[in-house]
Amino acid sequence: MSDESSIETAPTGVGLSDDVLIPLLAEYLPHQRWFSAKGQEMGSIEIIGRVVAARDLEGSNIEQVLFTVDTAYGIHRYQLWIGWSWQLPDRLAHATIGSGWGRVAYDALQDANVAGLLIKAIADNVDFGDVRARAESDADIDTTAPGLVIGAEQSNTSIVYGHSAILKVFRRLEPGPNPDAEIHRALHAVGSTHIAQPLGEITGPVQGQDTTLALLTEFFANSADGWAMATSSVRDLMSEGDLRADEVGGDFAAESHRLGEAVAAVHADLARAFGTTVADHQELSKILDQMVADAEIAFALVPELAEHREAILTTFARAGDHAAGLNVQRIHGDLHLGQVLRTLTGWSMIDFEGEPSKPLEYRRAMHSPLKDIAGMLRSYDYAARGLVISPHTDAQHKYRAAEWAERNRRAFSDGYASVAGNDPRQAGGLLRAFELDKAIYEVVYEHGHRPLWAAIPMQAVVALINAGGIS
After folding, report:
1. Per residue in 241-267, pLDDT tens?
2. Least enclosed by CB within 10 Å: which of 26, 63, 266, 469?
């Protein structure tokens, strides 16, 4: 793999030249779910590295390709595993990138043969040039399990191997270790019981830094994600005549309590693995000032938010009035009900990448655990109110959705407090500030993407500035 300062072309007979590949990528990228610049004017594409992974693998040559894309928001780095074939099988037609000079380029991660190649490479500690595949010292990897790509992912591509392992291939790259790999390894080392065991990874140099390209972890077969379980519970409540949330067979509060316990346990494990520190008043002011700055941008984008400008800024200002210090540590960073799995043995947290839109330095920094807690509280609100978003929903169903949200937010906080030894609700204005910051972000997102849904976070903004939040 070359530095970004020098461009290599693929060796003869492996793939077509950069000059042929770049136009194919320009046509292909805007249609991919994981491409972050969809809808933006795309500038130049530059190939910054090509490494041969296999020659004549069931009739295809395979290479890993690194490239940059220039957009209005900066230069972004991506990786593709590309297969080159003279005649692409019908089973891979959906993965076509483009063709030229009689060769067809395709997304090789969709190829079961390549999936097998990658897991075997990790198990056997294989090098592809300066791209290195390595297994964890205590990993038991089943290299015979067939690989199948998960189709619903947005920002990465994951391959599930039977019931034993899952390989997440990071599409967009930043130089350095990805927090998902870093945190999984650290939590496993301290004996955390609420994560998947890390099994191995693929790394390589990007801009001179050793960078995580893919992460292999244990796969939780027969698990359910928290979002699906929560919304199913809300549907059960909606379908009953006049029963309260605690009287319905699908009541979720007990699971919410257990989930709160699991999140608190992982926060404690993260503190053991990476340490903690206390943000002094100046650092706390910086955190709140950033919330204010983000809110000011939001006011300009959403007039309805601007109507509450004074109350919002007052809520942020009061958050730090009585804070003696704010404990900060490594956290999940993007926690919500879709980032937790109910396995056969309890709740586990997944996807420790942090917020994909934030730079790597921010995602690897220490933050308040209240940020994770606020994310979960907002997620409960969405799970409940998303099912009654229609303007035709009657008042009774809306009331019952609000009742469900409050009951489960309370149960989650109770569970967290029982393990953490401190109740996040005692943070009062600070927790409200983190939740308000998240709700404002949601209003802006929904305003631009799903205007009907903007009512959900907007309702939360109003409640929070009126000293609402959890009770």
Report:
1. 666 666 665 689 999 999 999 999 999
2. 26
Classify residue 58 as left (phi > 0), alpha (psi -120 to 50) or beta: left
- Contact, 249 vs 337, CB < 8 A? no
As a whole number of angstroms, the distance between CA 40 and CA 213 comes to 25
Please report, as a single letter, which amino acid is at residue 395: A
Q: For all residues of the chain together, what is the average pLDDT?
A: 92
Contact 300, 447 (CB under 8 A): no
Q: Is 197 helix (H, G, I), strand (E, B) or coil?
A: coil
Spatial contact of 415 and 259, defined as CB atoms under 8 Å apart: yes
Alpha carbon distance 139, 158 (integer Å):
19
Q: Spell out where 235-274 has E strands.
A: none
CA 337 from centroid of its chain's CA atoms: 11
What pLDDT score does 6 carry? 36
For 414, phi then psi, to 5°, come to -60, -45
- In angstroms, the CA 196 to CA 142 distance is 16
DSSP state letters, 5-56: TS-PPPPTTTS--HHHHHHHHHHHGGG-TT-TTTTSPP--EEEEEEEEEEEE
In single-letter form, the type of residue at position 327 comes to N
DSSP secondary structure code for residue 72 in this structure: T
The C-alpha atoms of residue 126 and residue 149 are separated, in whole angstroms, by 22
Cut 0.70: pTM above it: yes
What dihedral do alpha carbons 432, 438, 439, 442 form, nearest 10°? 180
The H or E element spanning position 393 is none
Residue with tokens 């309260």: 244
What does the alpha-carbon distance between residue 175 and residue 367 come to, in Å, rounded to a whole number?
21
What does the chain come to in residues? 471
Left if phi > 0, otherwise alpha if psi is -120 to 50, otherwise beta: which for 70?
Answer: beta
Count the alpha carbons within 13 Å of 439 in the hemisphere toward its beta carbon. Answer: 27
220, 166 Cβ separation under 8 angstroms: no
3-state secondary structure of 419: helix
Let me know the angle formed at the C-alpha of 336 by 320 and 276, rounded to the nearest 5 degrees: 50
Q: Which residues contact 231 (CB under 8 A, 6 or more apart)?
A: 383, 386, 387
